[in-house]
Design a protein that fits this description.
Layout (H helix, E strand, L loop, with lengths): L39 H16 L3 H5 L2 E10 L14 E5 L1 H11 L12 E14 L4 E13 L2 E16 L2 E11 L15
Parallel strand pairs: 1-6
Antiparallel strand pairs: 1-2, 3-4, 4-5, 5-6
């Protein structure tokens, strides 16, 4: 048959051999759904500023991004995302007091695991507003945190879920929960930096 000749439809072409599946239209969530309470640009500004503060070791300023009741969690890699620090082992489970103590300790020369300080680079992306209302804003973001020290380069990869609240018109962190996508902390062995 010549290349540009058309084939006549056959009887089997007009019948479907598979079951037709009806698909519902999927609505893609949009940050504009929450514009009454927050914009994605506001959230990104906060998260990018947080990354800059961590990379420059301005930990007291980083701490000021949290509300008075702010918390910071890093669950172990084998836990479900719904796990609670009350009944599960977390790498980090800082309430407001422990969070302040962590900052004070990391800034001292006696913090042997971080003196001299590691060089870090926090990359934040895929920022999404999950929910927002007058009292709280829920946000998710992907992250990669690179830690460079003594010729070793470590990468911590995962996602962070934030609960945010407005305090005096400014977004503040109520909860930061980092989910590591690593199978284990090897070769890192520990999380001595803030993710």
């Amino acid at each position: 048959m010549p290349i540009n000749a058309r084939r006549k439809p056959q009887l089997e072409d007009t019948h479907m051999n598979a079951v037709t599946i009806e698909k519902e239209a999927v609505r893609i969530p949009s940050s504009s759904d929450f514009a009454e309470y927050v914009t994605r640009v506001e959230v990104e500004d906060l998260l990018f500023y947080e990354a800059e503060l961590l990379d420059t070791w301005q930990l007291h300023d980083w701490l000021s991004l949290f509300t008075d009741d702010g918390t910071y969690y890093v669950p172990s890699t084998d836990l479900p995302r719904t796990a609670s620090a009350d009944d599960s082992l977390f790498y980090i489970a800082d309430d407001p007091v422990r969070l302040r103590e962590r900052v004070i300790r990391l800034m001292k020369k006696t913090a042997h695991s971080e003196y001299p300080r590691s060089r870090t680079r926090h990359l934040v992306g895929n920022v999404r507003i999950l929910d927002a209302g007058p009292d709280e804003i829920k946000v998710a973001a992907a992250f990669v945190t690179y830690r460079i020290k003594f010729g070793s380069n470590d990468a911590y990869v995962g996602s962070t879920h934030y609960r945010l609240r407005r305090v005096d018109g400014q977004l503040r962190i109520v909860e930061k929960r980092c989910f590591l996508d690593l199978e284990a902390l090897r070769p890192h062995g520990r999380v001595s930096i803030i993710l």
